């Protein structure tokens, strides 16, 4: 079977290329995305789009991560995890600290819980809980949580909150177009039927 030709930039099949709506944004932090290996195989994962839209972002696939290797010697004092953990810090607190690195965990809620279990050092870092005012637009995958967002949505929400005078919403244009492509490929009737029964987390 001949492999479908892919775009060298967005790495999507040429017929569903997203480059016309993708952007590259600079941020005040270093963005690290730790991705579960099974999630990395999902063709509709949103994390690669986020990584390709933020200057200097790193998408790292694995189960066990070495914080010093990934984050550097001062990882304990200058990194935080974007996750609704216990006693999250506020954006005002973040602004007063030396935080330089934002860590996102990519996978279903179950997979993310496993990543945290396998990497207990993550629990030693401050966590930042985003204020998700809108429900997820990840129409082709469903979260078991009412406040569940895809990784790219959570990332954009965090960036908007942590940058007082910037708006990173245009990063989501490629995400929305990817979803539209998939729904078109499925057909409206099939999508509506699957949409009702889908319970998978982003």
Q: Summary?
A:
The chain has helices at residues 37-40, 47-53, 67-71, 75-78, 91-96, 109-118, 151-162, 172-186, 188-197, and strands at residues 30-35, 58-61, 79-82, 101-106, 127-128. It is α/β, with parallel strands linked by helices and 202 residues long.
How would you describe this protein?
By secondary structure, the chain is α/β, with parallel strands linked by helices. The protein has 9 helices and 5 strands. The chain has helices at 37-40, 47-53, 67-71, 75-78, 91-96, 109-118, 151-162, 172-186, 188-197, and strands at residues 30-35, 58-61, 79-82, 101-106, 127-128. Strands 2-1-4-3-5 form a 5-stranded parallel beta sheet. The longest helix is centred in the last third of the chain and has 15 residues, at 172-186. It is globular. The two termini are 30 Å apart. Residues 196-202 have low confidence and may be disordered.
What is the topological layout?
Elements: E1 30-35, H1 37-40, H2 47-53, E2 58-61, H3 67-71, H4 75-78, E3 79-82, H5 91-96, E4 101-106, H6 109-118, E5 127-128, H7 151-162, H8 172-186, H9 188-197
Parallel strand pairs: 1-2, 1-4, 3-4, 3-5
């Amino acid at each position: 079977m001949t492999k479908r030709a892919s775009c060298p930039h967005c790495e999507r099949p040429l017929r569903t290329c997203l480059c016309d709506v993708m952007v590259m944004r600079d941020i005040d932090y270093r963005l690290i995305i730790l991705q579960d290996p099974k999630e990395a195989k999902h063709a509709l994962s949103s994390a690669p789009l986020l990584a390709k839209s933020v200057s200097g972002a790193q998408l790292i696939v694995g189960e066990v991560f070495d914080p010093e290797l990934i984050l550097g010697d001062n990882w304990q004092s200058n990194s935080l995890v974007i996750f609704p953990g216990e006693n999250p810090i506020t954006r005002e607190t973040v602004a007063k600290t030396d935080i330089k690195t934002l860590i996102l965990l990519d996978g279903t809620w179950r997979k993310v819980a496993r990543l945290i279990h396998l990497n207990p050092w993550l629990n030693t870092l401050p966590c930042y809980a985003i204020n998700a005012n809108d429900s997820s637009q990840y129409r082709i995958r469903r979260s078991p949580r009412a406040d569940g967002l895809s990784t790219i949505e959570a990332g954009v929400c965090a960036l908007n909150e942590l940058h007082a005078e910037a708006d990173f919403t245009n990063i989501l244009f490629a995400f929305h177009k990817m979803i539209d492509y998939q729904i078109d490929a499925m057909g409206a009737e099939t999508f509506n039927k699957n949409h009702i029964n889908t319970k998978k987390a982003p």
